[in-house]
Amino acid sequence: MMTNLSRTSFTILDDSSPFLASLRLNMPAPIRLRELIRTIRTARTQAEEREMIQKECAAIRSSFREEDNTYRCRNVAKLLYMHMLGYPAHFGQLECLKLIASQKFTDKRIGYLGAMLLLDERQDVHLLMTNCIKNDLNHSTQYVQGLALCTLGCMGSSEMCRDLAGEVEKLLKTSNSYLRKKAALCAVHVIRKVPELMEMFLPATKNLLSEKNHGVLHTSVVLLTEMCERSPDMLAHFRKLVPQLVRILKNLIMSGYSPEHDVSGISDPFLQVRILRLLRILGKGDDDSSEAMNDILAQVATNTETSKNVGNAILYETVLTIMDIKSESGLRVLAINILGRFLLNNDKNIRYVALTSLLKTVQTDHNAVQRHRSTIVDCLKDLDVSIKRRAMELSFALVNGNNIRGMMKELLYFLDSCDPEFKADCASGVFLAAEKYAPSKRWHIDTIMRVLTTAGSYVRDDSVPNLIQLITNSVEMHAYTVQRLYKALLDDISQQPLVQVASWCIGEYGDLLLSGQCEEEEPIQVTEDEVLDVLEGLLVSNLSTPVTRGYSLTAIMKLSTRFSSVNRIKKVVSIYGSSIDVELQQRAVEYNALFKKYDHMRPALLERMPIMEKTASNGPTEIVQTNGETEPSVVEPKHPPPINQPASQGNDLLDLLGGNDVPVIQTTMPTKPASAGGELLDLLGDLSLGGPAPAPAPPAPTSQPPFLLDGLSSQPLFNDIAAAGIPPMTAYNKNGLKIDFTFERANPNPNVAVITIHASNSTEADMTDFVFQAAVPKTFQLQLLSPSSNVVPALNQGTVTQVIRVLNQQKQQLRMRIKLTYTHKGSAVQDLAEVNNFPPQSWQ
């Protein structure tokens, strides 16, 4: 009996026609969207909200499976709300298409909205809508046509745009302003997706600017702007519309109160901004168009109310337009004065916009911006970090020879009190400005010492050799400088760059410190023991870095020819012959050898440095002669080694403190064999003559630096350029970047050509992250040494140098493929070039 009953029940449930249909009719209707929102908002935890959403999604899925047409619209609306909350709603995509195909406007509205939110051109499902959109674009109801235009303009793919561009162009010519404004925006999307369809809309644009409706005018200006930005031909064609645009803008300014378009007392500011942007594009680089719009721009600049943010937005667009077109000088001054007024605004965003705009215009209108210098400097005290950074950058841009003292005073005060994140950029800016506009050498030295005292830990790596070079070349300031630096050492030894410069100067000019010959300030009375105590204190201080200890030990060694306490210096040097620091140990061992085996050469070796020649005026500098301390390249491989050494009597001995062997120690960038793949395969290109290229000669191991005194009886590493008779050449000159090659011949091996690249930058912005790479055919071997910097300064104010060694055992003609990568004005640049015009002397 139980078996018959269960079989009967199964039969009833399986019969779906009358009973289940009535059962479905008796099921409760799904909750409305408003009730769902209210329910979800009552959830106290994320888990509770998730549970509600999952329960409702299950109900919606069941309804979709049962093809319930009655509540499909309501269910999709709820699904869109869940999508806005971040929950998956992709299973409703096909239901949106069904709603779009419905004849009800309410269904179409939700269906098109769902399509815009849930579909995009990456999914093939959207192509199923093409026929529905085409039918709705030809619908008799303007609101249905508007829905189709909005959807096509929002997510139409290039295929859909090609298929439906004709219908959009027809609606653009209609007399219905409601449809024309939507068709204009849809045309913008079509042009972005398929630029070659631009000419299709050209006839329809003739009468767009004659429309009185502001909505149509606004969208028409957007369409014209898009066409002008994408096509130079369209730009030339639409320049004849400048008088008409000027007339529209003038009517907006002079028109009386219109409640329909008024925003804070200004008539349709949105349309004004759009027209100003279009005028900026049309007037750029064109004298006639710029002349036609000068008067209206002056009217907008003088008649716009600045008490409300709406007026400030219009004024900002006016300023940008004035600066971009070929405007009159008086109009440009007016624009900069507007930005000056913005700096006094209480709104931080307006102040930031003003500083950014002034920074862009300071190169072309320097004198006009100078009038607002005091206001700009006041912005350095702002609490907002973005405003402070922009004010700092603009302040450095305003520095010139006339205001250098006043501006440096303000910027040094800012350096004292600013956050650590600003100190590096501020210190670098002070160095560059002082180097360029210093009124005197004493002022220059005082300024850089002030920076080192205040923010020594944040300065650039090349600040120490730059200051040493400046001090060396200022012969009359030696006594003053060494006295100032000695006092600074007594006060603070935590700023390592300052300690390094002070150690170098005391070692070089310690005799002047004892003699009290300083005329610029009252001389101090010190003894030899006091000076040596200070330097020995640096050797044992926990604050001293290995580089600083190297400076200190070398300074003590140099004082052995300037002081009479030679025995004490010998003891100090001998102690560090067993130091755990390999660099310090090597120096001490070699200095001990000087005291013993080469004592007769010690006075000539440690004599005072000659005046150094400077090869870069801004940024990294090269020292022509060095005693090893001007650039701590032996200790820190990231610093560039000195590469040129003039021949002299003690040329071999100059190696002692860091000379010719340094490049061998710091071969940090050897080229990789072509078989290793990667970038060099791209570089070699057709230079490879078949087969893998042999690997370059391996660099000398860095774990055990060579004993520098081993080279005392050898030849100089490089011949003088003039003696070699190899003319320099320009290998690359493009986009403001110029690469020059100079040549030398290595004495120990005449088959090795030493090429020094000199990279210079003639543009107005620095080239950062600069990397030079080179590759040669397989019959050559190539080795790249470290560059002097990765920043090529702007306006040819400095050069980046790098040494290349090429082994050419078969004396074949030299060919090279070079690869350049750098960042310029925020954009990454990469370029390849082939160099085949090497002078015959460089490879024969």
UniProtKB/TrEMBL annotation:
* GO CC terms in record: AP-1 adaptor complex
Its organism's taxonomic lineage begins at: Eukaryota, Metazoa, Chordata, Craniata, Vertebrata
Where the protein is mainly located, per its record? Answer: membrane
Report whether Transmembrane helix shows up as a keyword of the record: no
Q: Does the keyword Chloroplast apply?
A: no
Protein family: Belongs to the adaptor complexes large subunit family.
The membrane topology term of the UniProt record is: Peripheral membrane protein
Q: Which residues form the signal peptide?
A: none
Which keywords does the record carry?
Answer: Cytoplasmic vesicle, Golgi apparatus, Membrane, Protein transport, Transport
Q: Where is the GAE domain?
A: 724-839
* Origin species: Oryzias javanicus
According to the UniProt entry, which residue ranges have a biased composition of type Polar residues?
617-630
GO BP annotations of the record are: intracellular protein transport; vesicle-mediated transport
Q: What is this protein called?
A: AP-1 complex subunit gamma
Q: Where is this region: Disordered?
A: 617-653, 687-709
